DNA sequence: CATGAATGAGCGTTCATTCAT
DNA sequence: GATGAATGAACGCTCATTCAT
């Protein structure tokens, strides 16, 4: 018997072993057949990331399925269409990237230090996850990513953006559209990442330089 | 129709306008005049630019040919493969963009003014040629663009880069790899362009802000 | 819920409505009451009829299952294959149609009146059950219906056919193959039905005209 | 040199051999590359007819192409979609059938003789072209045949229908909708054909019986 | 050199059927 | 017995490229 069934039984305030047996049978008998596996979904996501990294957005669903170790058609149990998969992947990668940036952010203290912390997290996540970074870059220019997905992706970055808004508040870009600051930040991050990847021996230095350049730009 | 072909037609004792039209074409086809291939090549390039802008890199060669007003197969007398076409297009667009940036550059005088001139030219070229900009952005992330093409594209920008190198010589980025500065510049330009396109009423202001941000970043 | 299951639930000392619901299902599933399979079989048959009416014979088993309110795979515990389902459906619809035709047939009396009674019943059944009629029409031309099914379908109509044979006995078609008379009757019925459906205001008149036409044809 | 080119040259009133040579070259050079072959179109039509006869409407385009002796994709140079092919095939078969029925129709004389002539032609065409008849029957119940195609098919039968209208003018079905008479005729023809196919030794007799039955029905 | 029909591998997606739960 | 995820062959259709005309 699985933990889940026991939980359900307990939820109903029932400890009779026989009744629990009924429940087990019941659970199997109604709507509990082989649940969609989170593992498999993740495998598809990862396979798609790798496939996009190596073939671009024209990577075939067949390749993605094969890389994920599932049958051709199974992909469509998890994602309605290729476009749907790509939209979900885009959102997931953006979410992961943002979460990585905000990880262990010092809650208070020097604003500069906070931003540098987030910057470093971000940059190192990108450098450590080259496939994800590359896939994100491709998905970013794809026509298939819907406005809804893009706006959802913006929403996950709200905390991060608040941070940026706070630094902007005192510098030369107070009156510039926020989107300009965001794009500037992205561009600088991209430049920094590429530089670090090309010259990993001085990675830390380049990361710092990138940040300082950003700080000057926004001052 | 040229005088020459009329003469030839008359020589054959034929005055039917349609037949003369045939003759004109025939005369061109047997090399009596230079074939219009340069025109056709350009038409394909432009058609490809538009097609990429509207359909992405997956725009079919059939569509491109149709837009260029030529037959399906004729495209392949001008470009060996689709990839070849895209490589040449990439190089041509980059060349055109660079040339636009360097146009009428004041040969001497204040360095800041020179750079601002190039910056403005660049940004305005991009804003005025949205299809080309969009196509360039797509081609830039394409797997099909060969390293050879990319390095050729770098070469056409040598003059422009020299300019950048001269400003870098005195600021905080003296020791940063030049590629970092280039990527920074690209990122900032992209950010500026998008901002201008979204808010065309303040285009000039955004162009200036972008430049000043770059100047601070590099100082 | 039946009294029986409530008793069982009480026996287990449990009064949660949801859990009792579980138990009811469980009790059924272990054979404490006859499984509702007959109901489900019928639900599938009806669902298939509707599905064929709306999508043709290419209606998917998934759609049929969904319309029947059962799971995808459950369909195959009631029918070995899709073809099997269609064969059974064909036979069932033909049987129902024939039964409808023969309903309340006056046992004796004027032969013409008897036949008109059956004709009317038949035609009105078809007009009142458009989905069934449509499905039957599609199944009739399907390659999947086996000769065995077709001959079984003929057998259920034996009583009806006897009636027809009795009228034939005195007319111009005495020596024609019976199958010709059957096909003639079918063709006329189909023509009558369509005419009635297209002009329902004169349905009764068209039904009569159809019958009289048949009577003349067979005289 | 082909006949066609000579014709064109003559049309232009030009007999100079050299000029004709120009024309040949010209014709090839503009818009005269491998014209869509009528033969191939017909081969596809015939292949589709056979495929539908053996597999029903679910016959795959791949099979049709293979049977037609062309590549998979070539089918789509001749027909935009499978549905398009089926619509054109339906119209063509109906047209052929109608033309067969009306062939060598005696222009004047006994109406009964005229109709019998058409009836015989029709029935014998169907009996001699079993694939076509079968395909037509399948296409007739297909959801993919558009109303436009159906109405076009009606139009080709206008002459035939006029004949029927003339016999109807004096019998019991004067006030019945014409569509009823048409459906009656179809039904009877179908019944007659099947009977003939099943008992070819008495084909002629069955054909006559069918006609007489029709004549009685309509009287 | 221009043309567009021909090619066939490949695409995204569907679906009857199986089977672990 | 019920479930629905899993399967993989097939489907209709597209497309870069070739080549007869």
Account of the protein in words:
The structure is a homotetramer of 219-residue chains. Helix content of chain A is 73%, strand content 0%. Chain A is mainly alpha-helical and 219 residues long. Chain A folds into three domains: 1-35, no CATH class; 36-79, Arc Repressor Mutant, subunit A, CATH 1.10.10.60; 82-218, Tetracycline Repressor, domain 2 (Orthogonal Bundle). The first copy, chain A, is elongated, with a radius of gyration of 23 Å. Mean pLDDT of chain A is 88; it is low at 1-13 and 27-31. At the A-B interface, helix 11 and helix 12 of A face helix 11 and helix 12 of B. The first copy, chain A, binds a DNA duplex (21 and 21 nucleotides) through helix 2 and helix 5.
Topology:
4 copies of one chain form a homotetramer.
Chain A: H1 3-11, H2 17-29, H3 38-55, H4 61-68, H5 75-78, H6 82-102, H7 111-128, H8 130-140, H9 147-156, H10 158-168, H11 178-198, H12 203-218
Helix pairs in contact in A: 1-2, 3-4, 3-8, 6-7, 6-8, 6-9, 7-10, 7-11, 11-12
Chain A binds a DNA duplex (21 and 21 nucleotides) through residues 27-37, 40, 58, 60-62, 70-78, 81-82.
Features:
homotetramer; 219 residues; mainly alpha; Arc Repressor Mutant, subunit A; Tetracycline Repressor, domain 2; 3 domains; elongated
Short description:
4 copies of one chain form a homotetramer. The first copy, chain A, has 219 residues and is an all-alpha fold. Chain A is built from 12 helices and no strands.
- Write down the CATH topology of the largest domain in chain A: Tetracycline Repressor, domain 2
In CATH terms, the superfamily of the largest domain in chain A is: Tetracycline Repressor, domain 2
Most extensive interface: A-B, 36 and 37 residues
In total, the number of domains of chain A comes to 3
Regions of chain A with pLDDT < 50 over 5+ consecutive residues? 1-13, 27-31
Structural class of chain A: mainly alpha
Enumerate how many helices of chain A there are, as a single number. 12
Average pLDDT of chain A works out at: 88
Beta-strand fraction estimate of chain A? under 5%
Helix content of chain A: over 70%
Number of strands of chain A: 0
Quaternary organisation of the protein chains: homotetramer
* Gyration radius of chain A, in Å: 23 Å
CATH class of the largest domain in chain A: Mainly Alpha
- What is the string of helix and strand elements of chain A? HHHHHHHHHHHH
């Amino acid at each position: 018997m699985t933990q889940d069934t026991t939980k359900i039984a307990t939820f109903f305030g029932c400890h009779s072993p026989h009744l629990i047996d009924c429940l087990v049978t019941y659970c199997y008998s109604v709507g509990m057949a082989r649940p969609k596996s989170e593992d498999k979904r993740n495998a598809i996501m990862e396979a798609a990331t790798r496939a996009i990294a190596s073939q671009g957005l024209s990577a075939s669903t067949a390749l993605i399925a094969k890389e994920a170790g599932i049958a051709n058609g199974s992909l469509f149990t998890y994602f309605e269409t290729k476009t749907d998969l790509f939209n979900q992947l885009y959102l997931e990668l953006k979410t992961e990237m943002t979460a990585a940036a905000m990880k262990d952010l010092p809650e208070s203290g020097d604003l500069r230090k906070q931003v540098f912390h987030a910057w470093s997290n971000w940059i190192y996540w990108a450098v450590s996850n080259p496939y994800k970074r590359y896939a994100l870059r491709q998905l970013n220019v794809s026509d298939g990513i819907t406005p809804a997905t893009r706006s959802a992706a913006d929403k996950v970055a709200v905390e991060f953006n608040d941070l940026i808004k706070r630094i902007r508040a005192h510098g030369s870009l107070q009156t510039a559209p926020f989107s300009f600051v965001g794009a500037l930040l992205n561009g600088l991050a991209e430049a920094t990442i590429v530089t670090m990847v090309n010259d990993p021996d001085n990675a830390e230095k380049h990361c710092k330089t990138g940040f300082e350049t950003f700080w000057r730009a926004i001052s």
